[in-house]
Design the sequence.
């Protein structure tokens, strides 16, 4: 841990300060204090951005739907998240009768934890990251899997069938979409020949969005499902399930769930920027500004998709994962692996040739496969009740 | 290691207490659902210990496979179980199980104490040191060269399991 952090300016300064203050034999306090300082800074900055993002999303959704969105608190309603937070904190905190109180209380915490843990490996700008793990890509996949358990905890601890249904749906979906997500990450790993996110950024002479469009498409689809965003938001489909696994939650516990969800979208944008948009590298503007702009771009697309597409049915969602995204992700990995065997150390020109091949495969594959896979089947319940073909 | 000794001691003991404490709670808690959750905590504690000894790859795989996959399976199985909140009733098998448990614990403790651990020196020669820095690369190379047979056999085994599961839940159209 000390080694991975040694390059960090804040870490070094805080460490030096505390060690000068307390002396050599208390250096472990300095380690802890310096680590805490970084944790405090990164988590708070990202959660602040996540909070601001709720305003961004609501304003944009308003525009997409031909209405104003929040516009009363502060200029353009930018203080709306603060008003929301005050409302949530001052609300009565209800734990329903018959709930498993400990698990019920812990579920929002477990939900937020993976979001913040993922931040550890994300490079936010040139030279500013918390840790450059050599297994960072795998780390993201592993840590974000913990949110599945949080959903189960929330659904199981609530004495409510809607909560349980919502969490069952969520788990079925999260587990299914983990497969194409990891395959998309694998494609990037093969291209960069490293699992470290810093290496991935440095390997992108061309943005991987151009080099491997299929991987980016699969990642985008799978990550929106993992984030429970429309068109994959059946776990909290208001018209069917009240609010899914969050039904029984109120006050700040609900607030923490929402915070985790919105911050997750921002973090997913950061991961997308690192994996497919050259991370912090682009000319003229400072690296951190570019990074934020790229995250904002991803988030804008996510909101756009949410405002445009209607919700899938659960069986359609699972069909999309297994019948559509999974075969395409296999094609993607095979293609990239073959190209890396031909060009083991791809130069910019070779990356250009690769991207030409990949685009030539991606468009027909995505279009043709969508013709092969039909989602226009009757829902399973309806099929069970119909007398047709029996 | 850049760890200060006292600091790494603190971290180690915290992890050890969490791992073993939650493992004990898995056995003691009455609600099977909570026991399953404590099992997850125990898995994560083990991942922390892996991370402490510079085995980042193992730590991450531990979280991915046990904290993610196995935990979800276990909790799913618990949700399908009846009488989740009452727990197990005591049966005649209990004393036998207790004896077996103590015997296993004794055997494990004995072999851990008696084993001659091949400890690495603090400063490693260059080529060996890189193995510890680039674990995933080295593991990948070994899996696809020296141990490719085991790797492929595991793949075939998993495929067989998937096909078996599918054939079990397949809808029959002949009725």
Sequence:
């Amino acid at each position: 841990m000390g080694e991975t952090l040694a390059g960090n300016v804040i870490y070094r300064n805080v460490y030096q300060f505390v060690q000068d203050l307390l002396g050599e034999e208390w250096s472990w306090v300095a380690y802890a204090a310096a680590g805490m300082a970084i944790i405090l800074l990164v988590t708070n900055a990202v959660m602040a951005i996540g909070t601001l993002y709720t305003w961004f999303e609501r304003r944009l959704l308003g525009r997409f739907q031909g209405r104003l969105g929040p516009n009363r608190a502060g200029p353009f309603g930018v203080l709306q998240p603060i008003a929301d937070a005050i409302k949530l904190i001052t609300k009565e905190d209800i734990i329903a009768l018959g709930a498993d109180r400990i698990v019920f209380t812990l579920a929002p915490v477990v939900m937020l934890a993976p979001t913040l843990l993922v931040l550890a490996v994300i490079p936010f700008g040139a030279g500013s990251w918390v840790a450059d793990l050599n297994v960072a890509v795998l780390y993201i996949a592993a840590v974000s899997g913990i949110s599945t358990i949080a959903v189960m905890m929330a659904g199981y601890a609530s004495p409510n069938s809607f909560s349980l249904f919502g969490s069952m749906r969520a788990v079925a979906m999260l587990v299914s979409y983990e497969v194409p997500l990891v395959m998309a990450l694998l494609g990037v790993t093969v291209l960069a020949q490293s699992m470290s996110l810093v290496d991935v950024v440095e390997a992108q002479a061309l943005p991987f969005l151009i080099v491997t469009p299929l991987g980016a498409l699969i990642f985008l689809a799978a990550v929106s499902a993992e984030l429970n965003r429309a068109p994959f938001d059946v776990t909290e489909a208001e018209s069917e399930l009240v609010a899914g696994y969050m039904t029984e939650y109120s006050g700040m516990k609900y607030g923490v769930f929402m915070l985790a969800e919105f911050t997750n979208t921002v973090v997913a944008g950061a991961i997308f920027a690192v994996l497919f948009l050259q991370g912090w590298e682009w000319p003229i503007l400072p690296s951190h500004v570019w990074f934020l702009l790229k995250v904002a771009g991803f988030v804008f697309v996510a909101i756009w998709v949410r405002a445009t597409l209607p919700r899938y049915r659960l069986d359609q969602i699972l069909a999309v994962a297994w019948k559509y995204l999974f075969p395409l992700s296999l094609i993607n990995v095979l293609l990239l692996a073959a190209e890396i065997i031909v060009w083991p150390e791809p130069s910019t020109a070779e990356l250009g040739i690769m991207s030409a091949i990949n685009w030539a495969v991606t468009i027909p594959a995505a279009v043709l496969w969508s013709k092969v896979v039909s989602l226009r089947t009757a829902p399973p319940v309806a099929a069970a009740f119909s007398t047709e073909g029996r | 290691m850049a760890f200060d000794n006292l600091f790494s001691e603190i971290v180690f003991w915290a992890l050890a207490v969490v791992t073993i404490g939650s493992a004990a709670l898995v056995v003691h808690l009455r609600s099977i659902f909570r026991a399953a959750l404590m099992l997850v905590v125990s898995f994560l504690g083990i991942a922390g210990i892996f991370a402490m000894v510079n085995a980042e790859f193992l730590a991450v795989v531990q979280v991915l496979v046990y904290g993610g996959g196995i935990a979800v399976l276990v909790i799913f199985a618990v949700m399908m179980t009846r009488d989740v909140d009452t727990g197990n009733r005591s049966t005649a098998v209990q004393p036998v199980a207790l004896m077996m448990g103590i015997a296993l614990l004794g055997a494990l403790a004995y072999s851990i104490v008696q084993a001659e651990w091949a400890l690495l020196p603090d400063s490693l020669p260059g080529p060996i040191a890189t193995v510890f820095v680039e674990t995933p690369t080295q593991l990948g190379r070994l899996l696809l060269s020296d141990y490719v047979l085991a790797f492929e056999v595991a793949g075939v085994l998993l495929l067989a399991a998937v096909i078996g599961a599918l054939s079990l839940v397949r809808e029959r159209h002949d009725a």
In short: The mean pLDDT of chain B is 81. Residues 123-175 of chain B form one domain.
